[in-house]
Each structure stands twice: as structure tokens, then as C-alpha cells.
Amino acid sequence: MLRGLYLTACSSLIVLIFLCLAWELRLAPIQPGGSWLALKSLPLLAPLFGILNGRRYTYQWASMLILLYFTEGIVRATTETGMGQTLAIAETMLALTFFCASVAYARLTRPSSTQTVARPERP
């Protein structure tokens, strides 16, 4: 289960990075020849190595970062047409997949909550 969540999170993040680059440089750029909007893929590189190394803290904060891409995908899916709309739907689905996988991974790897802290006895 944990391995599947790890692989899902890693693959969806990597595919989302490439989708953002391909979208803004080749497939459906805002301006012909590409646009500076391709730089939106750079923040996705920040959590990449932490995700690949299975660091729980990275999964936690990356799940919040990915919500920006989910929001962009929803907005562009409802405002664009044609190829841009299709790519926006793909971005939304990849962001949602990453979000669910990273939250589940972080939840399953949390320290056990069954450990009790020694409390002083009451007089």
C-alpha cells in the first residue's frame, strides 16, 4: 500500500512537471513560440527530491503547494477551449492524484499515536 502511494505521488509529480513545460512551450502556449508561463513548473522541482526520497515532511508541504496547480487547472479548464482545456483537465487530475497520494502517504507514515507520554500522578 505504502509503495503504491509512493509510486503514485512520484509519477504524478514528474508527469505534472513535464505537462506544464510541454503545455506552455509547445502544445498550447498562450503566445506563439512559448511563453514565460512555463516557469510555473519550477516550484514543482522544490519538493521533487524529498518526494523521491520518501520524506514525510516534504509530502506534507507539497500537498499544500499542489493545490495551486489544482486551482489553475480548474480555472483554465472552465475558461479555455480546445487543447488548452484538455491540458487543464489533465493538470487538474494529476494535481488531485498527487494530493490524495501524498496525504495518504503522510498519514500512513506518521509516528504512532499509541505512544503515551508519562504523566505525573495526581496527589
From TrEMBL:
Membrane-crossing residue ranges in chain numbering: 6-23, 35-52, 58-75, 87-106
UniProt keyword annotations, A-Z: Membrane, Transmembrane, Transmembrane helix
Pfam families for this protein: DUF2069
InterPro entries in UniProt: DUF2069_membrane (IPR018643)
Coiled coil: none
Protein name: Putative membrane protein
Organism lineage string: Bacteria, Pseudomonadati, Pseudomonadota, Betaproteobacteria, Candidatus Accumulibacter
